[in-house]
Amino acid sequence: MDLTIFETFLPHDDRHAALAFYRDTLGFEVRNEVEYGGLHWITVGPPDQPGTSIVLYPPGSTPGVTDDERRVITEMMAKGTYAIINLATKDLDGVFERLQAGDADVVQEPTEQPYGRRDCAVRDPAGNLLRVNEIR
Length: 136
Hints:
Elements: E1 7-11, H1 15-25, E2 29-36, E3 39-45, E4 53-57, H2 67-79, E5 84-89, H3 92-101, E6 105-112, E7 118-123, E8 129-134
Parallel strand pairs: 1-4, 5-8
Antiparallel strand pairs: 2-3, 3-4, 6-7, 7-8
């Protein structure tokens, strides 16, 4: 079987804040933006990895989601427990400096973990947790 990760979805609740974080702070390129009914789906990804993307989507737009479920999603996003993504870099300290300069919500500074990784963690403007692992 030959599979690759093509897209993953992360919720956003503010188009402008999402673009500022993923494009301006992380340096991802915007590959597509679709507007429908005032809602925006934004596809971003690392410029040197055209086959891997993150789709930032409005979570309340998912068909079949009830008002109660939307409320729970909003609460979970605010706490940072709704969505998580792990990224990797050879320059963890440089990435962390860039995240701090971009006013990212720092959850954990670069730390040597007991399970053998060095990483840091931040939240994006929607509350999604991003862990950045150092590649050694």
